[in-house]
Amino acid sequence: MKGLLLLALSTLVCWVSADIHCHSCYKIPLIGCVDRQSCHLEPNQQCMTTKVYLGKMWLYSNLRCGTPQEPCHAAFNQTNHKLGLTYNTTCCRTDNCNNPAPRPTPALALIFLTSLAGLGLWLLH
User: Fold this and answer.
1) Which of 51, 59, 92, 106 is 20 to 30 Å from 16 at the Cα level?
2) Where are the domains of the chain?
3) Could you confirm whether domain 19-99 is CATH 2.10.60?
């Protein structure tokens, strides 16, 4: 009886863990996720989010599924001294746990780009 219960519980755990999805995209300031996709999490792996900073300024984030070839290893303040970049990686293992924030409205991006173009023209004048 214990063996049957253990088998049923193992099957349930495998069935639930096989259905975990992660988000996969490059998230850029004011634009949001570029090439947003969903990936299935492989057994014994985790969803990953790596945030990249230049000094204190956030440049982009890379959201993806961990794989056996590239498993998730949480890290805080990893630095590439040649480029001056800092990387923070977080790991999670629940369905859609690395969900990016909602996409910004297109109007906000248009206002930002128009303002940036105006500033550029003013600086060139």
Assistant:
1) 51
2) 19-99
3) yes
Residue 18 has what pLDDT? 55
Q: Residue 116: which H helix or E strand, with range? A: helix 106-124
What's the per-residue H, E or C state across 28-96?
A: ECCCEEEEEEEEECCCCCCEEEEEEEECCEEEEEEEEECCCCCCCCCEEEEEECCCCEEEEEEEECCCC
Beta bridge partners of 33: 27
Position 6 pLDDT exceeds 50: no
* pLDDT band at residue 75 using 50, 70 and 90 as cut-offs: very high
Q: Specify the DSSP element, H or E, that contains 79.
A: strand 75-80
Instruction: Give dist(CA 113, CA 73) in Å, integer.
Output: 36
Asked if 41 and 19 touch (Cβ cutoff 8 Å), the reply is no
The string of pLDDT tens digits covering residues 37-65 is: 999 988 899 999 999 999 999 999 999 99
Q: What is the pTM of this model?
A: 0.64
